[in-house]
Specification:
The complex is a heterodimer of chains A (108) and B (111). Chain A has 108 residues and is an all-beta fold. Chain A contains no helices and eleven strands. The radius of gyration of chain A is 13 Å and the shape is globular. The chains are: A mainly beta (108), B mainly beta (111).
Amino acid sequence: GIQVEQSPPDLILQEGANSTLRCNFSDSVNNLQWFHQNPWGQLINLFYIPSGTKQNGRLSATTVATERYSLLYISSSQTTDSGVYFCAVTQAGTALIFGKGTTLSVSS
Amino acid sequence: DTEVTQTPKHLVMGMTNKKSLKCEQHMGHRAMYWYKQKAKKPPELMFVYSYEKLSINESVPSRFSPECPNSSLLNLHLHALQPEDSALYLCASSQEGTPQHFGDGTRLSIL
């Protein structure tokens, strides 16, 4: 089956710093989503981005489907950005397959 | 995501109890999912319902029994669970070509 790898596994930042999270996948996909899971366990949709670039406030994402990777950019990080960031993909007719996540800790 | 509603938020049960988890969505999505998430791990797929029919069962033990009474509701019936079944149970829904939306989950503890 398709493999989804995220890097780095852990990231520690000072408030105000910028960061880039990476997601590599081993086969073509028809859906890619980025999620933020907060400390209470809520899984929040950040982006639905099978290809191209999207921006939402301080967050942006780029997926290069032909090269099988996606990047999530967080600018001017805040303590509320802490949590686990998951990349997840689907192929036709399947459910989401998640990477292992990047755990982000932002300190003030 | 609050468009998918899960109840209860927390559940503590003994190994001999029978309980049910409920999930509801009103987005008109025709696919609904149950995932299980252990601490510090990603969500893992358990079941998929498509157009109210079970389409995927990821070799889940029979002590977990899913049910889809209609296109808006998804239940997960629990019976004779083991302590290792303690986890966060997440429900999600989607439509072809759209993102999956997740509920806030039910945190289950087995005594």
